Amino acid sequence: MLWELLVNPECWPRWGPTVRGAVLDGSHLRLASRGVVTTVGGLRLPFVITAYEPGARWAWTVAGVPATDHTVEPLGPDRCRVSFGAPWVATPYLGVCRVALSRLDGLATGARLPE
Questions:
Q1: Who's near 35: CB < 8 A, 6+ residues apart?
Q2: Rounded to an integer, what distance in angstroms lies between the CA atom of residue 66 and that of residue 22?
Q3: In the chain, what are the domains?
Q4: Average of per-residue pLDDT across 33-45
Q5: pLDDT category, 78, cuts 50, 70, 90?
Q6: Phi, psi (5° rounding) for residue 7?
């Protein structure tokens, strides 16, 4: 379930605190996929998927700048660990990633998320 939330741009606003919307050029996220992400501030920025391992990991650049890396690690039946990485220049963004991870946990466990 969490992998599907991570790779479906229509779901990104549900867990990404800085994302208002996203549109993918194509039907599925994969290596070299392109699209546009809209921030909560209304900026529309192009993105490119720069790494993709089905069911395990994807990374991207946003507006040509290396951005977050998203990883799912299986831990057993019905369990996994989701983690995000960011380039060192984006270290302040890790606070946003922490909120995103909390939201993903809430979606996975059925907890009510803030509007």
A1: 9, 22, 23, 24, 25, 46, 47
A2: 17
A3: 2-109 (3.30.530.20)
A4: 97
A5: confident
A6: -100, 0
- For the record, the structure tokens of 109 come out as 């466990």
β-pairing verdict for 19-25 and 65-76: unpaired
The 10 Å CB-count burial string (b at 16+, else e) for 70-88 is bbbeeeeeeebebebebee
| Distance between start and end Cα atoms, the chain | 21
Is the pTM value of this prediction over 0.70? Answer: yes
Specify the DSSP class assigned to residue 88: G
DSSP for 2-40, please give it.
HHHHHH-GGGHHHH-TTEEEEEEESSS--TT-EEEEEET
Total count of residues recorded for the chain? 115
pLDDT at 88 over 90: no
Q: Please list the helix, strand and coil fractions of the chain in percent, rounded to the nearest 5, in that order.
A: 30, 40, 30
Determine the residue type at 26.
G
Residue with structure tokens 């290396």? Answer: 66
